[in-house]
Specification:
Blueprint (H helix, E strand, L loop, with lengths): L12 H10 L11 H11 L6 E4 L7 H7 L3 E6 L2 H10 L4 E5 L7 E5 L4 E5 L7 H4 L2 E7 L10 H10 L1 E10 L17 H8 L1
Parallel strand pairs: 1-2, 1-6, 2-5, 6-7
Antiparallel strand pairs: 3-4, 4-5
Bound molecules: S-adenosyl-L-homocysteine.
The site of S-adenosyl-L-homocysteine has 19 residues, from strand 2.
Length: about 200
């Protein structure tokens, strides 16, 4: 297949936590993503005060930027360390609450209320817990999901989208035989069949 050996690769949650512990987080960028700046108008589509979802959010700096623009941001991330670093690096006070529907999960919410970050696996979320979103910023998310979980991930994302929502997806194109991922190579044909 055109995705080579990547189809069977699995990165466990423990491996992700270990990357955060070791500071092995080359995917994190201090600057806002140029493609989000370029396509922000497309994402917003003339609307203001949106609910914007960041799947597999890490400590993405764009969450602070969009909240400052008046949107409300929800993220999900397995690494609590990542989320704590996010609030610390932006000097944002926050509170921590358990999530009654998800054993062991918590939600870290900025005191101003416009950023809520769930510390759990994305597969634990559902629209009855987080509601639906007007917009999704998917960078380092679909491409970080294990290839065997892609359909499950996309099916979940579709249930989290309001009917008028917009979804910006960033992927990377390269020869999947030369790098084991993540980020994984997700061919455009697969994106089309996943999202329909
Ligand atoms: N989107 C972020 C981070 C990309 S790296 C950015 O642009 O910087 C992928 C992140 O997903 C890592 O921080 C990892 O800890 C997290 N992650 C991996 N599997 C996850 C899962 N099942 N649920 C939630 N977060 C997950």
């Amino acid at each position: 297949s055109d995705i080579g050996l990547q189809r069977d690769r699995v990165v466990t949650e423990e491996e992700w936590l270990h990357k955060w512990e070791m500071g092995d987080i080359g995917f994190h960028k201090e600057q806002r993503h140029p493609l989000l700046q370029q396509y922000l108008d497309v994402l917003l589509n003339g609307r203001s005060g949106l609910r914007i979802f960041f799947p597999l959010c890490g400590k993405a700096v764009e969450m602070k930027w969009l909240a400052d623009l008046g949107h409300s941001v929800v993220g999900v991330e397995v690494s609590e360390e990542a989320l704590k670093e996010f609030f610390a690096e932006h000097s944002l006070p926050y509170s921590e609450e358990p999530v009654p529907e998800i054993p062991g999960a918590k939600v870290l919410q900025s005191t101003s209320g416009d950023i809520s970050l769930y510390c759990c696996s994305i597969y634990d979320l559902s629209s009855s817990i987080v509601g639906q979103f007007d917009a999704v910023w998917d960078r380092g998310a679909l491409v970080a999901v294990n290839p065997c979980d892609r359909q499950r991930y996309v099916s979940l994302m579709i249930t989290l989208m309001d009917k008028n929502s917009s979804y910006l997806l960033v992927t990377v194109s390269y020869d999947p035989n030369k790098h084991k991922g993540p980020p994984f190579y997700v061919p455009e044909s697969e994106i089309k069949s996943l999202f329909g």
